[in-house]
Amino acid sequence: MISDITLGYSILLLPLITFVVNGLFLGNKCAKAAAIFAVVCNGLAFAAAGALAFIYFSDFAPQATSLFDHTFIPFVGGLVARIGMLIDPLSVMMLVVVTFISFMVNIYSIGYMREDRAAGRFFALLSLFSFSMLGLVVATNLFQMFIFWELVGVSSYLLIGFWYHKPSAVSASKQAFILTRFADSFFLLGIVLVSYVVGSFDFSTLNSLSLVDFQKQFINLGLVTISKSEALVLGSILIFTGGWGKSAMFPMHIWLPNAMEGPTPVSSIIHSATMVVAGVYLVARLFPFFAICDNALTLIMWVGAFTMVFAAVIACTQKDIKRILAYSTLSQLGYMMFALGACKIGLVVAVTGWTASTFHIFTHAFFKCSLFLIAGSLIHQVHTNDLDAMGGLGKKMKLTYVCTLISILAISGIPPFSGFFSKDEIILAAFQGQHYVVFGLALFTSGLTTFYMFRLFFLAFHGEPRHEGVKAGHVHEDFAMTLPIVILAIPALLSGVLGKGIFEEFFVPGQLNVPQLMKLEHAEWLPFVAVGIAVIALVIAWVLYASPWAKVQRALDETNRSGIYKIVYHKFYFDEMYYAVVRQFIFGGIARAARAFNDYVIEGLLAFTVWFVHKLGDLVRLAQAGYLPFYLGTLIVGVLLWRFFGQLPL
Amino acid sequence: MNTILFNSIWVIPLLTVLACVMIPATYAKTIRTIHVTSATIVLAIVCYLTYVVYALSGTPTNPAAAPLALRFFTDIPWLSMFKANYIVGADGLNMLLLALTAFIVWAGVLVSLNIKGNQKIFFALIQLLATSVYGVYMSFDLVLFFVFYEMEALCMYLMIACYGSGKRDYGGKKLTLTLAFGSSMILATLFGLFFESGATSWNLIEIAKTNLPMDFQMWAFPLMFMGFAVSSSLFPFHFWSPDGHSAAPTAVSMLAAGVMMKMGAYGCLRVAMFLMPEAAKIWLPYVVALLIFNVVLGPFIAIRHKDLKYITAYSSISHLGLIFLGLAALTPIGLRGASLQMISHGFLTGLFFATIGMIYERTHTRDITEMGGIMRKMPFLGVGFVLAGFAGLGLPGFSGFIAESTIFIGAFQQDSTLTRIVTILAILSITTTAVYILQTANRMLHGPLPQKYESLTDGCFREKLVIVVLVACLLFIGVCPGWISEILDQSIAPIFEKINNIP
Amino acid sequence: MFNIPNFILPDVLLLIFPFIVIGMRLFVTTRSQLPWRLANIGFIAIFILLNLIPFSGGAERIFISNWKVDDFGVLMREVLIVSALLGMWLSKDYFEHGADKKPQMHQIAEFIGAIAFATFGGFTVVSACDLLTFFLGLEIATIPMYALAAWNKRDQYGSEAATKYILMGSVATAFELFGFSYLYGFSGSLHFSEIQAAVASGSSPLLWIAVLFLFCGIGFKLTLFPFYTWAPDVYEGAPTPVTAVLSVTSKATAIAFLVVLVYGPLSPIQDKMAPLIALLAGVTLFVGNLGALKQSRLRRFMAYSSIAQAGYIMVALLGPATTAKTAIIYYLFVYAVSNYLAFFVFSIIGHHREETFQSLRGLSKQNPSLAIALAISMFSLAGIPPLAGFFGKFHLFFSGASTGHYTLVAFAVLNNVIALFYYLQLIKAAWVDEPDGHLTPLRLTKRQREVVILLSIAVIFLGFVPFLSNNIFAGFTN
Amino acid sequence: MNLLNCLILAFLLFGIGVWGLMRRRHLIGMLISIELMLNAANINFISFAYFTAHDATAGALFSIFVIAVTACEMAIALAIIVTMYRRHKSLDVDQLRDLHD
């Protein structure tokens, strides 16, 4: 298997090398060389990943193995932090997706970043980003996962704030980093707690636990003392919190739409492959562990489901093209999350949801990436994100138009496009899990998805041009930017059909320690219902925005709208709440109080001490008035003083 | 041979000072050259010896120093009246701290080559300070230890008050007097230690073999621990460090925060906890309560500050709080984490203050609200600062993450209620750290560039060299922490044994 | 005609050569440097002879039954001679030109003679074997000081200072005498050995009244609380060299007096006196430190600092004999050196300016090496390692702590922080403060430069180079 | 006429000296009261020598020495007071207040 190991190393190291070389040497010298180098390296990485996947899946019934496993830091006993490369269907799939997407995005960036002087830095950071994600994907243990988890966070920070002269971009990047960091602090706490209870970081150990071993021991958590089994449940929830923030689940979702301030390639890579799916991946990776921790999965399901609907509703009203896509991502992530959660059926677990979720990660990556790239090229033409300025682009950009249509059909779950298969499985899982509320929500949301995606589609590509540039016809399709879009359209179209088989064959979350439900009846009617809803939503969108009697202008201006629309349009005022909390409570409240305590109480005590000593000094000098009789008096007084206080045995 | 080299670590700086006494102050260039050379030589020696210690690890050490695993052990009679001897030696812990010191001193000399005022005296003082720090780390005789420990007071005030900025006299006095207060507590307890233990010399190892009466330990330990903790700015004795750092010139801030503040923590571990383990076991779980200020409130205070050096000072306060968390955990991992944090934070804060100093030299302000967008004008320094920030908020790949995670895991092993609570709070407060670091970096480096900064220039070669070297150290520890933990464990084991073997 | 044993030679020499110095004035012109040179030679010769005494053999060095020259005596003599020599060198410039806005002084020969007599008084105190010699020694050491304080006849402050000094001094003498009388009455003899025997056999109120009065009497010379009140005024009013001599020689004599008493006749009740000594020490050093906080005139500042130093010295008296003696001798050496270094710097400053903090401003810019010397002496007095002052204090505290007085030691050590504060004030004036207006240039004579360098080196190296302290210790143990 | 009476006498004398010292504002007067205190000590010596001490000569000798020494001291004191007078043209203690904090 030596070839595997070399492949594995090359997958991880090529992006790293790109980062180092571009960051230190090529970066600020010549951007073009950097770009080419980045594209080549990422292409090679993708090739390696593909080869690895081929080798891996080509042998019958592939096992989970780790290609290499180095000791990083030894802690007590079995508690050893390792850096390894875990190979199982899930990670291999992710490797392929990540390398492919970053390859595409790198190609795209050649065009997108052509004018930018700092392009070299951009390519460096992009490679760092994919490197961190790859490291996260192949992690063999929580510690390594956390290491790359943080790296993902920081590289996203650097990329979102890439145009650091734009205050909005800077604050967006800060917000993204701090919110995810906030979630990560709980993740870290979870890691420490779980590793303390279990005595290991390794996924293999965690995934083969059973709570009964821990019910007898107890652990002191400061305020409360709980049994170790409860501690594990707590730990699992804490760990999930990390994914909660990273995958921007409600209410920690607000950083994701704001992250649109970054360059579009970044948004596309964040949303499709690297950052946000990390949370879902974490849950998928630790699924057996979550499965034994009752309630954890239920929580995950509800968080996912709520985010799904919530984001979809907001997406229907937005006008910023990238924000619409961002909210659609949130909604899709909600799908993946709740699919994982929905595996829990009372006391037993069915793994169909798991398969569906991972499948959706796979398919979603392609069409979402291509959608963002398309948005990017649109913005490149009209120099704004606003749908107001678009319209009528379809005639000018034929290729793009077609690819967009494919991706949008895919995301709306219209067969035979890829989205249909994965989303269908997810909804099915919800149905089989007898989570009928969530099931209903999922159907409703799929309708919403179709609606807002086609709203975007019609407003951008159909109707009359609303932009001078477009009217004047200064619109062309940049080759470097169109090529990846076209390439991505292929998997967006086919990955569903081809992938279904592989996923249903290989994708199971390993051995579970809970009773597992195998036989589940397949609801034959479900696909038709889903598609029906999608089609209805499509028609509504067409009627509202593209039909001859659509009033596009009225549809676009958000003034003189009903209250509900306003609230939704302002994203339920969540940003405002967030800023209020941070400014008033954190900075204005705690921080100010802390500083006041320091500046007034501590410094005050110090000042008082100094003042007191000086006052004593004044007393001493007061006696020194130069008055001789007083001095003589002190002699006499001194005698008496020591006579009485000298403790002499008189 | 190595032993001679080892002893020369603290002698060379003194010789440098003596050599420069002869040269008139007008030959500033010659003096600078001499100092840079000597600092480099010491750096080379220390690195070599560190390598030797690492290479020899596992081989038997000097039996005279058992149970401590010391190399280059030297024991010469010194002051006959109270049987103080000149005893020095090196185990992994203090060797690494010496290496840290050598790096910071070297960097400090380099960054302050263009300092205003009488350079002859300034560099002499820096070398004296270096001597004192080297001495503290290598000496195993309590008198010698204290002599070196107290020496810094002599240099600090002059350096801050004469070469500093802002409220330099106030800052210098505050720093010097607070440290003197701490060391006076230490001195008082040292006498107690000597006479109560009935030892025939001030040899740390010998005193460690005697068993001190419990009632004595009960009052002596807190005194001594707090005495040491003062110089590591443990609450409530942290107040000297923000004013002191902000008033001090760059090199002094680097040395003070980088290595001098570690002397306290080192003393807590090496002297207080090693000699009085019983009392340590009883007291430390309560000492942890003080860390709520250092670790949890410190970052919040940093958020409210606008002055770069104040922000960094409070970040140091919080990071040093983590050291004490590790110590108070009283587990091998905790102690290792604490020592790792000493070293890591040394490099980290050195880099911080170095970059801040360089930026201050150009912008002539440290108020982040007045700056902005200077990343465009000085990308190198900006990147240096950002990297320091990332290391500070415990980003994997830098040493800070290794140290902090080790401390957290180690502290979590300690099952006492208070420690648990504080550990949990500490883990959760990594967010606050991120907040003030990013806020600072963004305000200062990003955003639009004010008109007045159009003419700024990026770092010159020596400044870049300093930044590169320090970042390299941070990355080196961060990427391959295995070997360093290995060395540390060997030197911590005896200390932990002593604490652990209490009946 | 009995033969004079060789160990008595220095004392005899010291006794006769001032007469020669003063007498010579009759034969030479006032301008002549001859007396000065002779005095130098004399003191240096005595110092060398003193160093030879240990080799003169004979464990018990006793001359006509009440003049013994033990190791402590020899070392004290060396301290006193060093102080006298430095004081003389310091005073020379004040006879060549006025300083500190005061007129020039005259009659250097008599001045030196007075110093020599005071020194001889010190000799007598440390070699006395009975109360009478003891008392005489103390008086011989004190009376010249009164005269010295008033040396500058044309300075009104000098006379006022002298008046205060002598009036209070005589009262203190009265106390001492009273104490002596009771001691005599208690033991029925003047001889130390017999007094010791009597004290050992059992105490009585008489003895304790005696002890009380003796401590109060000597408390005046040693500037213990509350008998120190004369010190700031006298130190300020007297000429600078006299202040220096006062702060070293007369303190050394006083502490020698206490050492002789506490470890001689009163040794049996040392533990009973411990609380009194501890109290005196603690209060004195505290008050001294407090008083020095807000001073603006250098000599008054040094007065308070020396009061505090007296308190520190008292701490050592709690320890066992050998330790305490070693500590005190070593500390006196160090203290003398540091103190004189400071005074030399002041005298250089005071040549054209007043001796105030004001006139120190800008020193570091004007003459860095002088500023460094000042800083060295101040840090040494503040007890900062590796300077000698720290090791001196360490000896003292070691001696105090060796009998378990940790609380007092801790208190004394904490007081070091206050001390450091005001020493830093002075260093700040010299190093940080910008000079206001034009600075008159400083002129250093060759002598001043050499002495300052010598003393600085001594302060730096006497500490961590174990030469001095080990030799003193060896002197007591072998 | 026994030891105790003499001691009481001496003590009274001492007390009177102290009292005078406190009351007087005239330098000479203060000197005289100091003399009283010293002589009180002398009386002590003599009486101890006479009643208890086993070497009686010592006490007597001591007092004689004391007288001599005090004489010198007083001489110096008077000299100083003379210079004082030259400056201040008065011997009032209350005027000695130039030196103070």
TrEMBL record, chain D:
Question: Principal localization?
Answer: membrane
The catalytic activity, as recorded, is: a quinone + NADH + 5 H(+)(in) = a quinol + NAD(+) + 4 H(+)(out)
In terms of Pfam families, this protein maps to: Oxidored_q2 (PF00420)
- The keyword tRNA-binding is assigned to this record: no
Entry GO terms, CC: NADH dehydrogenase complex; plasma membrane
Do you know which InterPro entries this protein is assigned to?
NADH_UbQ_OxRdtase_chain4L/K, NUOK/Mnh_C1-like
Q: Please state where this protein is localized.
A: Cell inner membrane; Membrane
Query: How does the UniProt record describe the way this protein sits in the membrane?
Result: Multi-pass membrane protein
User: What keyword terms does UniProt attach to this protein?
Assistant: Cell inner membrane, Cell membrane, Membrane, NAD, Oxidoreductase, Quinone, Translocase, Transmembrane, Transmembrane helix, Transport, Ubiquinone
TM helices/strands, residue ranges: 6-22, 34-53, 59-82
A GO biological process of this protein is: ATP synthesis coupled electron transport
Kindly list the GO molecular function terms attached to this UniProt entry: NADH dehydrogenase (quinone) (non-electrogenic) activity; quinone binding
Q: What is its EC number?
A: 7.1.1.-
Give the family this protein belongs to, as stated in its UniProt record.
Belongs to the complex I subunit 4L family.
Subunit arrangement? NDH-1 is composed of 14 different subunits. Subunits NuoA, H, J, K, L, M, N constitute the membrane sector of the complex.
Q: Tell me, what does this protein do in biology?
A: NDH-1 shuttles electrons from NADH, via FMN and iron-sulfur (Fe-S) centers, to quinones in the respiratory chain. The immediate electron acceptor for the enzyme in this species is believed to be ubiquinone. Couples the redox reaction to proton translocation (for every two electrons transferred, four hydrogen ions are translocated across the cytoplasmic membrane), and thus conserves the redox energy in a proton gradient.
What is the protein named? NADH-quinone oxidoreductase subunit K
